[in-house]
Amino acid sequence: MTRLLITGVSGLLGINLALEAVQQGFDVVGWTNSRTLKNVPFQQETVRLEDLESLPAALQSARPDAVIHCAAIANLDVAEQNPQLTDLVNAQAPGVLAQVAKSKGIPFVQISTDAVFDGSRGNYSEEDLPNPQNTYAQSKLGGEEAVRLAYPEALIARVVFYGWSLGGKRSLAEFFFNNLSHGIRVKGFTDSIFSPLYVTDLADLLLEALAKNLTGTYHIFSRESLSKYDFGVALAKRFGFDENLITPVQTDQGNLLTKRSLNLSANPKKLQLALGHDLPGAFEGIDRLFDDYQKGLRQQLAVFLA
Ligand SMILES: NC(=O)c1ccc[n+]([C@@H]2O[C@H](COP(=O)([O-])OP(=O)(O)OC[C@H]3O[C@@H](n4cnc5c(N)ncnc54)[C@H](OP(=O)(O)O)[C@@H]3O)[C@@H](O)[C@H]2O)c1
């Protein structure tokens, strides 16, 4: 049985990836930071990434056969307000972990982001030059560079995703769900374009990429790109909410604290070729988000935090 270390297991990606990996037969050990999970079907440890000196021993004692490094300061405004901590956690810690993974000869997957691009053009491939626009994006690019330097055979997965999280507020899907289900009006950005995967689709692709021993940089995105407004409308239609509650606006009318890249549509052809099959779409992912809602996943996740 493969023992898989998932860092950031209390996060949106981490928890959904861990549940999927357990279901696929992995022996999962998860790292958390500020939150402790209850009654989860895997082992968990608290490890603070900013404590760089503690990381080699923590990784050794987890005894993994592979690592998927999901943990990060992923809130853009928190990153903007804490640049030094963000650099430690998002840029330096991945390099330390990758170095230990290399010395142990085990695969290492660094989760990165579409936000490394400036969003001026869209349809980004692995060949395009990053140009980060805020502290978070800069730190994630720093993490990529540190991992490449420490462990050139690591897999760097640039991603963007939505799904159900432990706290119920982490993803764009939850933003639309929480407001529209209560009849609350929201803004939907028409000029903010992305290529998001449903988090379980992303989890499956990450585990498949690991099984195929992919190395280097890969774009792991949905085969379709859409605006955040169109995403909200599609979600409203699937859940039976009133789509007219979503006002189409430009991002600069959103009063956001941190500058964001606009057109982050991405091109995942390299991954499609490597895996030999089509990638999931963003719209069919919304169907799976709905199916998992009906199966009670939202409540199940909340219980892990209770
Ligand atoms: N959400 C997206 O659409 C998106 C898009 C592109 C890339 N990403 C990347 O995907 C990964 C997962 O994102 P997410 O949305 O799942 O994030 P999230 O829900 O905010 O979870 C972040 C995770 O990182 C842990 N963490 C935060 N600070 C830490 C620290 N100082 N030491 C140790 N662990 C720490 C958190 O632990 P606690 O909760 O226990 O504090 C949590 O488990 C990140 O690398 C992010 O950059 C996300």
**CATH homology group:** NAD(P)-binding Rossmann-like Domain
Q: Specify the helix fraction band.
A: 40-55%
Work out the helix count.
Answer: 11
Distance between the termini: 30 Å
CATH topology: Rossmann fold
What is the strand arrangement across the widest sheet?
3-2-1-4-5-6-11
How many structural domains?
A: 1
CATH class: Alpha Beta
Q: Which cofactor or ligand species appear?
A: NADP nicotinamide-adenine-dinucleotide phosphate
Structural class: alpha/beta
Strand content: 15-25%
Report the average pLDDT across residues. 97
Compute the number of strand runs: 13
Keywords:
single chain; two-stranded parallel ribbon; 306 residues; binds NADP nicotinamide-adenine-dinucleotide phosphate; Rossmann fold; alpha/beta; seven-stranded parallel β-sheet; globular
